[in-house]
Amino acid sequence: MGTVKNKKSSKIHTKNPVTRLKRNLKKKEHDRKVFLILKRVVLAVIVLAMLAVVLALLFINFTKPEKVVTEKIEATVADYYENYFYDRIKDYSNLDNYVENGFSKVTLRQLLLFDSERHADASSLLNEYCDSEATYVRIYPEAPFGRTDYHVDYHYACTF
Q1: DSSP assignment, residue 83?
Q2: Which of 15, 38, 60, 71 has its CA 20 to 30 A from that of 99?
Q3: How far apart, in whole angstroms, are the C-alpha atoms of residue 135 and residue 138?
């Protein structure tokens, strides 16, 4: 019983080292591509999660009732003084007299009703959070007494 080799069997067991190397290189390249894709997916998920958190915080901050109400009152006061009250006082009074003590207080109710209720659309929101008689502003003109030369003291009687 001599040694008879099966030709088919020997071909199966002795692999060409070049093809094994090619197969390993292809496998490594495939693994590298999969790794890069997964890395990009993970980074994209992290960036999207961070963006969602930032947008949520901004949305919450800009829709807080306190912020909305104070901005609405400040805009109403600016409109009141610059476009309504200033035109009535600029020619008739010496504004130097009011620099230190300011003009008389203007209640939120007066601000909402001035000039044929120009800001009536904001009254439901403002009255929901603030007492319209106890919330008031005092306006102080500043030299050179232009339309936008003033500062305001706000006195809020609001619950948020």
Answers
A1: I
A2: 71
A3: 11
Element (H, E) at 29: helix 17-62
Between vectors from CA 26 to CA 24 and to CA 30, what angle results, nearest 5°? 115
Q: What is the pLDDT of residues 97-106, one digit of tens each?
A: 899 999 999 9
CA distances from 29 to 38, 93, 122 (A): 14, 85, 64
Task: Give the pTM.
Answer: 0.64
pLDDT at 68 over 70: yes
Maximum separation of any 2 CA atoms in the chain, in Å:
132
Question: 108: Cβ–Cβ under 8 A, 6 or more apart, which residues?
Answer: 73, 126, 130, 131, 132, 133, 135, 136
Q: Which amino acid is at 62?
A: F
Q: Which pair of structure tokens corresponds to residue 69?
A: 């109400």
